[in-house]
Amino acid sequence: MRLGSYRVIGVLFTLLLSSHTAQSAEDDCRSSTQNDWNVVAQTCPIGKGLWGRTPEKASGAFWVQCGLIKKLPEPSFAKNLPDSIDKDTVVFRQEGNQFRCLVGPFDKYAAALTARDAMRQHPAFSGAFIRDALLPDSVVTKAQGNKPSNKKPKSKPVMALKRDYFSVAGIKSPKPNANERKYRDGEIVWWRATLQEATLACESDGMKLVSESTLRAIAESAEANTQLSTRLPFWVAEQNAFDSTMMVPIPLSKESALLVLCE
């Protein structure tokens, strides 16, 4: 194991002692080297996405998520990293047959913010966002075991998978899978998703959620706007809903099931 791998383990081990026993923290976030990259298990806690929100504390444990991919990249992919990002700070969390790309962890939110902005300068990482590893409900707790509980289990974040798309005015809309919410408008079947589901789906295929300015331009085009649904709003990159008919943002819950466009 390289020096960088030990450094990642050390930082994670220190940060996670408050929520794990010493042994489980070390096991969960023990880094191995695969294809010249640092890889950790899915049980290593990475917290929840801040999605533009400022954390309650400026110090803690922060990751920058840089994508979700089917397989580990070649070592030469490191050349695509910004000069300010050390390759040894890049960690891939293995999740089934996928790998979540992460940079960190950072003990200061400001440092994570700087890294996120640097990552976003590269087209491959334009959807990079910050995760707070110490959010109370984001830690994997082994101590619970199989003990019965009267509490309703919290829903797990939906993993973005590679999807089929249909074209809408030069950009793409993910097609719904069989067991997902959908909305039929004429011959078109739209996928209805939460903000997190929509964002992850676009990012997993190297795109990002449509921006308000792009959606507004489509809606203002006499030819293009006929391809948009007029009944439901869309999620946009500004982290809010946008009504393409009334041309205004709408204050809806991020758990609302809205339409999705990726660019």
Automatic annotation (TrEMBL):
Q: InterPro entries of this UniProt entry?
A: SPOR-like_sf
- Signal peptide limits: 1-24
**UniProtKB keywords:** Signal
Tell me what this protein is called.
SPOR domain-containing protein
